[in-house]
Amino acid sequence: NMYGKCGSIDDARNAFDKIPHRNVVTWTAIVAAYAQNGNGKESLELFRQMQLEGIEPDKIALISILDAC
Q1: Which of 21, 32, 37, 49 could be bridged to 64 by S-S, CB 3.0 to 4.6 A?
Q2: Could you say which DSSP state residue 20 is in?
Q3: Cβ-contact 39, 9 below 8 angstroms
Q4: How many Cα neighbours within 13 Å face the side chain of 7?
Q5: Contact status, residue 55 vs residue 22, Cβ threshold 8 Å
Q6: What are the tens digits of pLDDT across the range 12-34?
Q7: Residue 9's CB: how many other CB atoms inside 10 A?
Q8: Residue 49's Cα: distance from chain center in Å?
Q9: Distances (CA, A) of 3 to 41, 51, 54, 62
């Protein structure tokens, strides 16, 4: 989340990719990072991937994905 807020989306993605067991918090952070940095399409794709991996979005994840639209 820190990298995303600083606009360092590549660093945010690298950190995310190194997480072995992702949960709704880690997925929401990367979805929000992409959305907040103007990468709505990628944010939506990550949100979909989160769902495909069986992670149910919570209220925060749903609010984060609204930024992508």
Answers
A1: 32
A2: S
A3: yes
A4: 1
A5: yes
A6: 999 999 999 999 999 999 999 99
A7: 18
A8: 10
A9: 19, 23, 25, 20
Among all chains, which residue has been given the structure tokens 């950190």?
Answer: 15
The H or E element containing residue 1 is: none
Give CA torsion, residues 55, 34, 9, 53, to 10 deg: 20
Name the residue with tokens 């993605």: 13
Tokens of 24: 């709704």
* pTM more than 0.85: yes
Is residue 26 within 8 Å of 60, Cβ to Cβ?
no
**Residues near 5 by Cβ (< 8 Å), separated by ≥ 6?**
33, 36
